[in-house]
Design a protein that fits this description.
This protein has nine helices and ten strands. By secondary structure, the protein is an alpha+beta fold. The chain folds into two domains: 209 residues, Outer membrane efflux proteins (OEP), CATH 1.20.1600.10; 91 residues, no CATH class. It is elongated, with a radius of gyration of 44 Å.
């Protein structure tokens, strides 16, 4: 036997051996249930359960909440306060002049309230009111009574030029609304990105499936050729070297089939990752596409494509 061929065959056996062992391990694995899905099914599941989309959906909700918060600058402020105290003034007798000054006890209670705020026109308003009642009694026991007092005020201020174009409150509202639009476009962009990735993963899975079929057919033909060559060697119609070459081709076909099967699993895992936020639900399930790779002729107009890109792309709309 040619030493060069012997060395090449030895290297091939060592390279294919791990794949063959993997193939045997795969054959012994229990058959998992299969879920047949179309591309539309995959897109619908991704729109509902894709983790990136679910995370991005919170951004518009948060931005909308911030818009509501920015209007808090126009909310009126209400204040209320009340105080109560007791004041005692002891009686005095001025011996030098022989005068008696009676004492007194008073318990004043004072209540005040106010309402103030800002209107979108820039007008500031303030409404205030207060009320007080003061019961009193002279000491020693004598005259008693109650004093009442109260008041109210209204203040309005409308600047003519100050903050005419913009003011801090209107600025915060405008920024919050802008951020809301940006977050909505970001969600739209994430949906487009995820759908595109699902389509790519789905078509890659179909390609991997077709590749397995091709490699299975190649292995079948290689095994058939090997069987025919063995018969020819047995009857002396072919040299043993040709039989060894057929064995090498069969081993190569077997290795290519295992690589194709491994690629199928990788593409299937990629699609599962895009379809759900809980990979464990899909771990013990095989996905079987019910579509085939079909190329449909399509024509595009450059000017129309430019116009659609400038008016529909979310990343460009976020910049406006």
């Amino acid at each position: 036997m040619n030493p060069v061929f012997r060395l090449s065959r030895s290297v091939l056996v060592w390279a294919v051996a791990p794949l063959l062992l993997t193939g045997r391990g795969t054959a012994q694995t229990a058959v998992l249930p299969t879920k047949v899905m179309s591309l539309e099914d995959c897109i619908q599941v991704a729109l509902e359960h894709n983790l990136d989309i679910k995370i991005q959906r919170y951004a518009p909700e948060i931005a909308d909440f911030n818009v509501s918060i920015s209007y808090a600058g126009y909310d009126p402020n209400f204040t209320f306060s009340g105080t109560s105290r007791t004041t005692v003034q002891a009686p005095l007798f001025l011996t030098a002049i022989g005068t008696f000054i009676p004492g007194s006890v008073s318990k004043p209670e004072v209540f005040s309230s106010g309402l103030n705020g800002l209107l979108p026109s820039g007008l500031t308003y303030s409404v205030n009111g207060n009320f007080a009642n003061t019961p009193f009694q002279t000491l020693p026991a004598g005259a008693a009574g109650v004093n009442y007092s109260g008041g109210a005020s209204v203040s309005l201020s409308q600047p003519l030029l100050k903050n005419f174009w913009i003011d801090p409150t209107r600025l915060q509202i405008a920024l919050a609304k802008k951020q809301l639009k940006v977050s909505e476009q970001a969600l739209r962009q994430q949906v487009m990105t995820s759908v595109t990735l699902v389509e790519q993963a789905y078509y890659n899975l179909i390609f991997a499936r077709e590749s397995i079929r091709v490699q299975q057919k190649a292995l079948e033909l290689a095994d058939q050729l090997l069987a025919e060559n063995k018969k020819r060697v047995e009857v002396g119609a072919m040299a043993p070297l040709d039989e060894k070459q057929a064995e090498s081709q069969a081993a190569t076909a077997q290795a290519a089939l295992l690589v194709a099967q491994q690629t199928w699993r990788m593409q299937e895992n990629s699609l599962k990752t895009l379809l759900s936020d809980n990979y464990g639900q899909w771990q013990n399930l095989n996905i079987e596409p019910n579509e085939n790779l079909v190329a449909f002729p399509q024509t595009f107009n450059k000017a129309d494509s430019w116009e659609k890109a400038l008016t529909l792309r979310p990343d460009l709309l976020q910049m406006k």
